[in-house]
Design brief:
This protein is flat. The protein starts with a strand and ends in a 7-residue tail after the last helix. By secondary structure, it is of the alpha+beta class. The chain has a 6-stranded mixed β-barrel with strand order 3-4-5-6-8-7. It has a 4-stranded antiparallel sheet with strand order 11-12-14-13. The longest helix is centred in the first third of the chain and has 21 residues. Helices cover about 30% and strands about 15% of the residues. It folds into 4 domains: about 160 residues, Bromo adjacent homology (BAH) domain (SH3 type barrels); about 150 residues, Hormone receptor fold (Irregular); about 130 residues, no CATH class; about 90 residues, no CATH class.
């Protein structure tokens, strides 16, 4: 789908122009109902496409069943309410007002998602349910929805919206009884009020300013001594800037007032015996992680400090959050963020034009795996009920269709849940499990009954062999349907064309004779009989005897102890090559000396089968025989006498080097 940004093209409908703040339908699924969203932003990507930042609204079918009962109790003050009548099998029955209420009800959420603007399918209206209006005022309007509850998909909660009028005793303030004029007493100023500063003192203004400068200097020195402050403000000018904040000035005025405006006593209070006084406000007391959480919460909730405290900063008091908010607005970071948002708002799109969507596919897979046939293809199913596609996509209800273009039928005869649409008239069904360890699942193409019938009536014009040789080419289904429908009179004609005759095949004896068999005598070894045949005269590969547990007993390979070998040589020859067998004394086994070392060798004893039984060492130092069934199939390397003679001529370092790098030449 193509779209345009900016002005409205000529001869276009204003309904296709979508702006920020509009409530629109989004198509997330080809067979599911539309999703209702509110456009928050329109952004243009680097490749030229337009993406919409949306606020989500949830339908009743998208909310957990446990929360749906809370919504019913909120509207009708009862939990057991009548079930929804949104069943396609119920037919075109008259819907109750409560069922219509459920179809038009949405749940507001603060969930934000980003989707391409090409998925917009139309406009709608969403309003807050008013307590003074009737529900029928919302139901009689087209594309109108309402909401009264807020759904949190993360916390799985459903709460009432703040827009309701707070009426009741819990929202009223207790009013004290009215006192008569003769019972009133003069207010006690000393009890009800507290003096924080007396302007009529004996200190000059210059002395007050000098005292404030001294208090700031003490605050700078106190931050230099404090470890946490030195990490946050590593430089001197940052510490001085933090000490010059209002909290230090307020503390200086309080010290003067507390000591009856005595400069000497006030100065001594700034540096007590425990060290210089350090005054911090909320801006300095919060960590960087808490500041980031606060900015994220402001971005999401705005000035809703109750939600900020509940979801982001539960360990902070409401006083701390509000005080930090007003201090944060005086920082450069707030000014920079405000400037960036202003620039982004100027660069963002105000509106986008999306052409009307034209449906191309005529078959989609339903939520339960059924096949949904759309549009004029429904004419091939004259006996099935046709429903309105637009009413189903907007409200999720099954209403009888009025026009052919806006109709669909549900065909459950093809398959329940294993069918997936591939092309019009062709359906892919998973086959047997993959064999041979392959990761790709096998499949076969299963055509619909109408397609099989059209092949037979148009066999001379459909070029069946041509399409069978080139399955990747598309078939003109519309043209084929136009030609086939007049030839298919009705359902009985389609059933007759889909019937197949069972082919009778010749017996195997006749097939063997056709292939050239001349000996027709009966072979005894091919005749199945319950009587056990006599054993053969000689068995070439007899099976070894079995133990009581069912395992085979193999004869150990005879071996004798070799000549004594030094401990170091024994460790080198046997520990690092556990797959070799013990040497056997044969006439050809002779000790050969190379320098001062002695090496012994022998011919390996190999089992006379395709897979060889070998010896393996275990942790206890003993050797066990591995079954020939567990031996590897790929190859078996057996050194010749010449190779063994060459090995004896090499020193130990050269042998180790050749073993580490077998791809290099030795000689």
């Amino acid at each position: 789908m193509s779209f345009k940004v900016g002005g409205v093209p000529p001869n276009s409908n204003s309904d296709n122009m979508y702006r920020v703040g509009d409530y629109v339908y989004f198509e997330n699924s080809a067979s599911g109902t539309y999703a209702v969203r509110r456009i928050e932003e329109l952004n243009k990507t680097a490749n030229g496409n337009v993406e919409a930042r949306l606020m989500c609204f949830y339908r009743r079918s998208e909310v957990p069943a446990s929360l749906v009962h809370l919504a019913d109790k909120h509207h009708w003050a009862e939990v057991d309410v009548e079930p929804d009548s949104d069943d396609e099998d119920a037919g075109p029955q008259e819907e109750s007002e409560r069922a219509k209420h459920k179809q038009r009800e949405l749940f507001l959420s603060r969930q934000i998602e980003t989707l391409p603007a090409t998925l917009i399918r139309g406009k709608c209206s969403v309003t807050l349910l008013s307590e003074v209006e009737e529900v029928s005022s919302y139901l009689n309007r087209d594309d109108a929805f309402f909401y009264s509850l807020v759904y949190d998909p993360h916390q799985k909660t459903l709460l009432a919206d703040r827009g309701s009028i707070r009426i009741g005793s819990e929202f009223q303030a207790p009013i004290p009884p009215l006192q008569k004029s003769d019972e009133t007493e003069s207010p006690d100023v000393e009890v009800e009020e507290e003096m924080l500063w007396n302007p009529y003192n004996n200190i000059k203004e210059d002395e007050i300013n000098q005292f404030i400068i001294i208090a700031r200097s003490v605050g700078t020195f106190a931050r230099a001594l404090d470890c946490s402050s030195s990490v946050k403000q590593p430089s001197l000018h940052m510490s001085a800037a933090a000490a010059s904040r209002d909290i230090t000035v307020f503390h200086a005025y309080q010290a003067l007032h507390a000591h009856n405006y005595d400069l000497a006593a006030a100065l001594s209070s700034l540096v007590p015996t425990t060290g210089p006084v350090l005054c911090r406000d909320e801006m300095e007391d919060w960590s960087s992680a808490e500041a980031n959480l606060f900015e994220e919460a402001i971005e999401k909730y705005g000035k809703d400090f109750n939600d900020i405290k509940r979801d982001f900063l539960p360990w902070k008091s409401m006083k701390n959050i509000i005080e930090y908010f007003f201090m944060w607005k005086t920082t450069d970071r707030y000014v920079q963020q405000k400037r960036i948002k202003a620039l982004e708002s100027e660069n963002k799109l105000k509106q986008v034009y999306v052409p009307a969507y034209s449906r191309k596919s005529t078959r989609v897979t339903g939520p339960q795996g059924e096949v949904m046939v759309l549009g004029r293809d429904c004419d091939a199913y004259p006996n099935m009920t046709k429903y309105s596609w637009s009413q189903y996509k907007k409200f999720g209800r099954f209403v009888p269709a009025v026009t052919t273009e806006d109709c669909f039928i549900i065909d459950r005869s093809l398959n329940s849940s294993k069918l997936s649409q591939h092309r019009p008239g062709l359906i892919i069904e998973p086959g047997s499990p993959s064999k041979g360890g392959k990761t790709r699942a096998a499949f076969f193409l299963r055509s619909s009954p109408l397609m099989r019938a059209s092949r037979r009536v148009n066999g001379h014009t459909a070029k069946l062999r041509h399409h069978a040789r080139k399955p990747q080419e598309l078939v003109d289904i519309k043209g084929l349907r136009t030609v086939s429908l007049p030839l298919l009179a009705g359902v009985e004609r389609v059933k007759l064309l889909n019937s197949f005759k069972v082919r009778t095949r010749a017996p195997m004896s006749e097939i063997c004779t056709r292939l050239g068999q001349t000996d027709h005598s009966e072979q005894d070894w091919l005749v199945l009989s319950k009587v056990k045949p006599p054993p053969p005269h000689k068995e070439f590969f007899p099976r070894p005897p079995k133990r009581t547990d069912g395992s085979y007993v193999y004869d150990r390979i005879p071996s004798l102890a070799p000549e004594p070998v030094p401990a170091s040589r024994h460790q080198m020859l046997y520990k690092k090559r556990p797959y070799e067998e013990k040497p056997v004394d044969t006439p050809s086994s002779k000790p050969v000396r190379t320098g001062t070392q002695t090496r012994t060798y022998s011919v390996n004893q190999v089992a006379p089968k395709g897979k060889f039984a070998t010896m393996a060492r275990v942790s206890g130092g003993q050797k066990t025989v591995i079954s020939w069934q567990d031996a590897p199939d790929d190859l078996f390397y057996r050194a010749s006498k010449e190779i063994k003679k060459v090995r004896k001529q090499l020193s130990v370092p050269k042998l180790r080097k050749a073993a580490r790098k077998p791809f290099r030449k030795i000689l």
